[in-house]
Write a structure and sequence with these properties.
Chain lengths: 199, 199
């Protein structure tokens, strides 16, 4: 298989496109879309988000030391895109899109976006300037899942959330479930049972 | 919309599940699967991968200071899963799965996995111990795309790569294209033309 060499670029994909919400010292909320986001540690649970120093939310998060990651479903996608291309410096993006805020446990001022499938309340532990972006490394201090995504036994059904992924400038729906962690070494019985459950 | 509070966990999703390949001082290659991976800076282009200190590849990457990120397509998924659940300490995972290595520009020893849609050659700049995982922050020094994914004008068609995403223990195909970056503020003409191109 032949390859074409190109200049190094940010083509790791797919990545999540999440709404990161925060607030200023008067509690005025803002949200920006971040695709340079990910989990960085399991125990303690930690995430990172990379934000350009010039972004309005960069200042809010730097001064408050907290933010909320809102996972995004297909029905939120136009709002997500809007919060990625417009700045809170030029107006209230949330009102402009009719998005509502809800308070999130463990956060002094950063709100969650009402209706998002999940809110991850995050407290900043470290900020690393890397170049165009600063890397905010944060601990997840609270986690909240929309009620309709949790079954009676407390199981989380994220597959019902219709999450979206971002790849090379395009937002995608998550498609068919292809396998579960460990499927390549599962016994035939387990494989059959669990793959059936994924359909 | 009501929410259920759960204990904080690593539920940011979807995330990529990429094969990270590296090699020991004798050039013996290994690969492990990393879902705690993401882009962290655009300029210079940088990524991060989080790896448990106990993992065999942790030592290889720490001592060589380099690794290759292989984006993963659906047809590689069983190999990807296998490299996540098995250890290079117990045997040669690549041979066990019939995976072949190719050399990657800018890398002294870390190979790429033959056939992967894309190879990102990465040089480690910083390692941050966070708890269960160490965060490797690395600069992308080379980028290579499979020839069939690049058109005659040099445009990259990652949508043909059939990439996969990982969410809460399950691997998913990327589904329908839902929009492009900026679609929420695009003019009707641009919206029509570009959405049509995404079909």
């Amino acid at each position: 298989m032949d390859y074409v060499s190109l200049s190094p670029g940010t083509l790791l994909s797919p990545v999540p496109a999440v709404l990161v919400s925060c607030a200023d010292e008067n509690g005025r909320p803002n949200a920006l879309t971040v695709a340079w986001a990910g989990t960085v540690c399991s125990d303690p649970p930690m995430v990172s988000v990379s934000i350009r120093p010039g972004r309005y939310s960069h200042g809010l998060i730097s001064s408050s030391g907290e933010f909320v990651i809102n996972l995004c479903s297909e029905d939120m996608l136009a709002d997500v895109d809007y919060c990625g291309v417009r700045s809170g410096r030029d107006g209230d993006k949330l009102s402009a899109r009719g998005m509502e805020c809800v308070s999130v446990e463990g956060m002094a001022r950063a709100p969650g976006i009402a209706g998002a499938p999940m809110h991850l309340g995050c407290r900043v532990e470290k900020v690393l300037p890397l170049g165009s972006h600063d890397l905010f490394i944060a601990r997840i201090v609270s986690l909240r899942v929309r009620e309709d995504l949790v079954d009676k036994k407390g199981g989380i059904h994220l597959e019902k959330a219709r999450l979206t992924a971002y790849s090379h400038g395009v937002y995608y729906a998550l498609g068919k479930a292809l396998g579960f962690f460990g499927f390549s070494v599962a016994s035939p019985d387990v494989l059959r049972r669990r793959m059936k459950a994924l359909k």
